[in-house]
Design goal:
Elements: H1 5-19, E1 23-31, E2 34-41, E3 44-51, E4 58-62, H2 74-83, E5 87-92, E6 99-107, E7 113-121, E8 128-132, E9 138-141, H3 172-180, H4 187-201, E10 206-210, E11 213-218, E12 230-233, H5 237-257, H6 259-285, H7 289-301, E13 312-316, E14 325-329, H8 336-380, H9 384-396, H10 404-409, E15 418-421, E16 427-430, H11 434-444, E17 450-454, E18 462-464, H12 473-485, E19 495-501, E20 505-506, E21 517-518, E22 522-526, H13 530-536
Antiparallel strand pairs: 1-2, 2-3, 3-4, 5-6, 6-7, 7-8, 8-9, 10-11, 10-12, 13-14, 15-16, 16-18, 17-18, 17-19, 19-22, 20-21
Helix pairs in contact: 1-4, 5-6, 6-8, 7-8
């Protein structure tokens, strides 16, 4: 759902109370279209997210930690130059418009007080974030709009800012809800009343969930769906919007930043799968090798009757229970002895091929399983650091090439696993990729800590840190649920999860990262639970 004007007004009301009169300490741009302001407000330090992402533009208080690029984008540098230390004077929103203006007082290069404005246009594909000077002239914008792209309003540095044409409309969800509640009169009047109520009293942050997954949100309880939709209330709109968009944003950032990585892994996986298919066909063909030896025997037995120059011969097949004749293909350029030797050679070749192909197929199946696990790991990546760690792993294993010049100066990245705390107080660690899985299981965990992994499907290594004591049943159940959620089985109702003390988990020689074997284990059916994972996560 797009953030409607009334929900935005509720978020703005929270913002006014938290940052009105406050000063901007720091400015970050974690994504190409997202800006975060760190503000010292009347109630303490807070962070404000201004997103011009066309998929989900919005403005609200945020508590999420977002990974920032090593080098700030130019728009971020410009904002830092003009707005660091600026005081927030007013936050304005026109009636029923998804436009918010932060009126600011800043200092220029000479130390004089000057007026600045930061305008967020949270309007879908036309979303934008625009910095204005004291005269209302555009200093810069996160997305430039010129005459080559549109015949309408231009948004370019140097031009005076013009508000977009008013686009008042009742959000479809709200219109249906008002009708459901018996509103038969003028909807515009009902919406105006709601606007005033939210402005004076604030709204009620409510998320709509279907089958436990976020489906929508609103500023009032939505009753039209009945019992098929769960309503979850939040303490603030900032917390609601953080929770609603967190997973979507992480997946989108990972997809954008990791597209080349996903493509490379999928290509390697598909090549491996095709090679495996060919090898299996070749292995199937070697199963007829005994017949080659039999034909060689038949030729050897009848050497005295054979003549050079023939392409086929018919001989009695004494391997046939009825001793019927069999037609044997021979090379007319070879002697009878050479033709018999040729069949023996083909037999030995097929025999050796079976052994070689069996080994190659085992390696290929291991490679395919590894590449599938990497694709699963890419869905867990939460930022560039996680993607870089996977790139290193693929380079180390030979699936990606390392540039010769870059190899010497390349700085290795070491990421951290996800951390959780069970309701009983035990720590749980979850690896986000194969390198972290190896590090957790093989190096960090003690032999008495417990290891969890989904049975026969790809997933994270999960370590329940027990300190050598027997873990309680609740902690075991919650660790198993985390293993189920961070696996390929997260969409299933319940997933079999194997668990055992770490001492029973081994890594065989030459095994790919993250690949282990284990014995003396137990299995339990565990439900993948995203809500539990969010609630238990500590960092």
């Amino acid at each position: 759902m797009a953030l409607d004007a009334i929900c935005l007004s509720a978020a703005v009301a929270e913002l006014r109370a938290a940052v009105g009169g406050g000063k901007i300490d720091k400015i970050y741009q974690p994504g190409g279209q997202d800006v975060v302001l760190a503000v010292r407000g009347p109630a303490g330090n807070v962070r404000v997210l201004l997103s011009a992402n066309p998929s989900h533009p919005r403005l609200h208080l945020t508590t999420l930690d977002r990974e920032n690029p090593d080098k700030p984008p130019m728009f971020c540098m410009l904002l830092r130059k003009h707005l660091t230390g600026a005081r927030i004077l007013e936050i304005e929103q026109p009636y029923m418009e998804r436009i918010v203006t932060l009126r600011l007082e800043a200092l220029d290069e000479l130390g004089d007080r000057v007026s600045r404005s930061l305008v967020l246009e949270a309007m879908g594909r036309r979303a934008n974030l625009i910095l204005l000077d004291g005269e209302g002239r555009i200093m810069e914008c996160i997305r430039r709009v010129d005459g080559d792209l549109t015949t309408g309003r231009q948004v370019l540095p140097g031009l005076f800012y013009r508000m977009p044409e008013p686009r008042f409309g009742v959000p479809p969800l709200l219109e249906r809800e008002l009708r459901f509640r018996g509103e038969t009169g003028d909807l515009a009047s009902a919406v105006e009343k709601l606007w005033d109520e939210v402005g004076k009293k604030g709204g009620k942050p409510v998320m709509l969930l279907r089958e436990g997954k976020p489906a929508d949100f609103s500023f009032l309880p939505i009753l039209q769906y009945g019992l098929e939709t769960e309503l979850r209330e939040y303490a603030s709109f900032g917390a609601l919007l953080d929770d609603f968009y967190e997973t979507r944003e992480r997946q989108e950032r990972t997809r954008q930043r990791g597209e080349d990585l996903v493509r490379a892994v999928k290509n390697a996986r598909d090549r491996t799968a095709r090679k495996l298919e060919n090898q299996r066909r070749e292995l199937e063909a070697t199963k007829d090798r005994e017949r080659l030896r039999q034909l060689g025997d038949i030729l050897t037995t009848n050497l005295h009757t054979l003549e050079k120059g023939r392409s086929t011969v018919r001989l009695q097949d004494y391997y046939d229970p009825e001793c019927r004749e069999v037609e044997i293909m021979v090379d007319p350029l070879l002697t009878p002895q050479q033709n018999a030797a040729r069949y023996y050679k083909e037999y030995n070749k097929a025999k050796n091929a079976e052994s070689a192909l069996t080994r190659q197929i085992e390696r290929g199946e291991s490679d395919l399983a590894y590449l599938e696990s990497v694709l699963e790991n890419l869905t867990l990546a939460e930022g560039e650091r996680d993607l870089q760690e996977i790139r290193q792993e693929l380079t180390d294993t030979g699936y990606l090439r390392r540039a010769t010049k870059a190899a010497k100066r390349e700085k290795r990245v070491t990421g951290k696993p996800m951390e959780f705390r069970t309701d009983s107080g035990l720590r749980v660690s979850v690896g986000k990729n194969n390198s972290q899985n190896d590090q957790l299981t093989m190096k960090l965990a003690s032999k008495w800590d417990w290891w969890f992994h989904t049975q026969k499907i790809h997933g994270s290594h999960v370590i329940l840190w027990t300190g050598g004591a027997e873990p309680d049943e609740l902690s075991v159940a919650q660790a198993a649920s985390l293993a189920a959620w961070f696996s390929q089985g997260r969409e299933a109702g319940k997933v079999p999860v194997d668990f055992t003390p770490v001492k029973y988990v081994k890594k065989t020689a030459g095994a790919k990262p993250g690949m282990v074997v284990y014995t003396t284990y137990q299995t339990r059916m565990a439900p993948p639970d995203e809500t539990l994972a969010k609630r238990l996560r500590t960092k």
